[in-house]
Design goal:
By secondary structure, the chain is an alpha+beta fold. Helices cover about 35% and strands about 15% of the residues. It contains seven helices and seven strands; from the N terminus they run βββαβββαβααααα. The protein has a five-stranded antiparallel beta sheet, with helices on both faces. Strands 1-2 form a two-stranded antiparallel sheet. Helix 3 packs across helix 6 and helix 4 crosses helix 5.
């Protein structure tokens, strides 16, 4: 990894050189031999890039560039003099915390940006993913919603960019497990309703140790 220092005002660490034209990457670092403003203008003009933060360095500039989720499969052809690098990562893949660290390191100095706030959802590998137990609790909070309703509302929230961590986890990480869990909850709920219907035989409390807790 290369470390670029801006005379003590900002230190930015570069990861490995990007391969495949940045295909599959949500966020990249761009090293430029040009000044920060020209670098920003060149990147902001690229149709696959939706956010740019360009920082002036002692020699040239460093830019943090975000691309649209739908365009991640496309290659980015950089103008001459601009080279793409991966973000330094704390693991095998870039995580939200890696993006946050790089973003914070680029706040000191002369810069040009069209990013007003780094979204909580930055990166497809956001570390703020609930555990399976946490997601189960969330799914259990509304026993009257069908699984289709949950996923539809979650997709709507994601499209409107206000999805919470549970909705993102449902759609992107634990879809099949969540479907099975909700189906199981619905089956159990139906059994309990049948057992508690008026006129249905009530079993003695000593028939099963846990029956009195479920009736």
């Amino acid at each position: 990894m290369a470390v670029i220092d801006n005379e003590g005002t900002a230190t930015v660490t570069l990861g490995p050189v990007v391969s495949n034209g940045g295909r599959g990457r949500f966020c990249i670092l761009v090293k430029s031999g040009l000044d920060y403003a020209t670098t920003f203008d060149l990147l902001a003009d690229k149709k696959h890039i939706v956010g740019v933060h360009s920082l002036q360095m002692s020699i040239g500039a460093i830019a943090l560039a975000f691309r649209a989720e739908a365009d991640k499969k496309n290659q980015i052809v950089m103008p001459e003099g601009l080279d793409m690098y991966c973000l330094p990562s704390s693991g095998a893949r870039t995580k939200g915390i890696d993006i946050q660290s790089t973003w914070e390191a680029m706040q000191s100095g002369t810069c040009k940006t069209n990013i007003t706030q780094l979204r909580e959802t930055a990166g497809e590998n956001d570390p703020d993913i609930p555990t399976w137990e946490e997601l189960q609790d969330w799914l259990s909070n509304d026993l009257y919603s069908s699984f289709d309703a949950r996923t539809a509302n979650s997709r709507r929230a994601l499209q409107m960019e206000n999805a919470d961590r549970y909705q993102r986890c449902l759609l992107k990480t634990m879809m099949s497990e969540s479907r099975n869990f909700v189906n199981m909850l619905n089956e159990c709920s139906a059994i309990i309703r049948k057992l508690t219907e008026v006129g249905h035989r009530v079993y003695p409390s000593g028939f099963r140790p846990h029956v009195q807790d479920t009736l």
